[in-house]
Inverse folding.
């Protein structure tokens, strides 16, 4: 089975639409979203509507949790808080109810795959994993990890390969899972990449061949940015789209 996974849409309709079309061309069997459908961008309802329709399961992200009243975000910086407040006021009742129902993690039956937004340890804290030292915090839980854990949150494409005693960071490119290793993979961001590649990110995993692929697709950044400029949102949320940071 070929599964398509995307994350961190952040209300970027143009990026999401391009990723969904790319996944259609890739002929994936099922799609999953790793969270943060809302926050930062100008199209929270439109993106939520699409994700609800196409994703078999969507994981709760920290921005989703904030908008849905499931976490305290008073410590977020002011522009991010304003965006979350705005999105909370804009979301339809159905979309808000859906965000309130999202799970913190999902295990794909028969695939030895776990999906979550941040670290699989202390799920409700949404800890980041974008460096080997952060990945090593999961080593005490090695036996509990699925062979593959896919996460979002950092907006970066990262691969961490685990033995029982150590973690090695691998290049973020196509690879085949080794039977005697476990992996935590950060899938990058659809709506707000931060690795200096402004193309929308998504990944494909074949549960039979165990091949993992990172994918990027261009989208209409100008249109997405203009919507942010026209909304009550921090202008830098638009500027950063052009440089992917």
């Amino acid at each position: 089975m070929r599964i398509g996974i995307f994350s961190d849409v952040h209300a970027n309709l143009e990026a999401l639409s391009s990723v969904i079309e790319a996944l259609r061309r890739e002929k994936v069997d099922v799609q999953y979203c790793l969270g943060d459908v809302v926050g930062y961008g100008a199209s929270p309802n439109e993106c939520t509507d699409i994700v609800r329709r196409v994703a078999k399961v969507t994981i709760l992200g920290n921005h989703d949790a904030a908008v849905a009243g499931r976490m305290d975000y008073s410590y977020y910086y002011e522009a991010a808080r304003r965006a979350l407040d705005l999105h909370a006021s804009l979301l339809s009742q159905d979309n808000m109810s859906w965000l309130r129902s999202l799970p913190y993690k999902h295990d794909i039956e028969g695939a030895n795959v776990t999906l979550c937004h941040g670290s699989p340890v202390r799920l409700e804290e949404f800890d980041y994993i974008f460096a080997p030292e952060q990945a090593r915090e999961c080593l005490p839980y090695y036996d509990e990890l699925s062979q593959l854990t896919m996460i979002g949150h950092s907006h970066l494409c990262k691969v961490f390969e685990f033995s029982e005693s150590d973690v090695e960071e691998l290049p973020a490119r196509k690879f085949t899972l080794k039977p005697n290793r476990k992996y935590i993979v950060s899938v990058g961001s659809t709506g707000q990449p931060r690795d200096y590649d402004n193309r929308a990110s998504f990944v494909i995993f074949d549960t039979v061949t165990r091949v993992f692929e990172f994918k990027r697709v261009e989208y209409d950044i100008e249109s997405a940015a203009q919507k942010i400029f026209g909304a009550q949102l921090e202008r830098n949320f638009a500027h950063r789209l052009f440089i992917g940071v």
Observations:
- Residues 2-243 form a domain with the Purple Acid Phosphatase; chain A, domain 2 fold (CATH 3.60.21.10).
- The helical segments are 13-25, 44-54, 62-67, 78-90, 93-101, 132-136, 221-230, 236-243.
- The mean pLDDT is 97.
- The CA atoms of residues 23 and 60 lie 21 Å apart.
